[in-house]
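Subject: Predicted fold for Protein Niban 2, 114 residues

User T.R. writes:
Posting the sequence so we have a shared reference for the thread.
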Amino acid sequence: VVLPKAEKLLKVSIQPYISSILDALMEPTSRGFFEVRDVFFRELVDMSKNTLNNATKETVAQHMEKISMLPFHPVKMQSCYEKVEQLSLEGLQQRFDVSSPSVFVQRAQILMRK
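User M.O. replies:
I've generated the structure tokens; pasting them so everyone works from the same file.
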């Protein structure tokens, strides 16, 4: 009894907007993850420069520890988080009763730290 009504609702009210929802979510999220990759790349380049001449197990271990803690470094990760905070669900918020994109932003930031 419910299935035909649910399918009709899906086709009329949700399916036409799926691509715009994905675009709205993916563009700033992708920029944030690209920034994460860039931050890690810079840190790895710094590590390789610092360990090139004096590569002992201890110095490599220290640098690896530093890199493993990078996701929790608020200053270095701030630019990554700011990219995702530009998320705008204008128009979609009213249609799907989303009061704020903050839940999407927070989830993306959690995934960035992982």
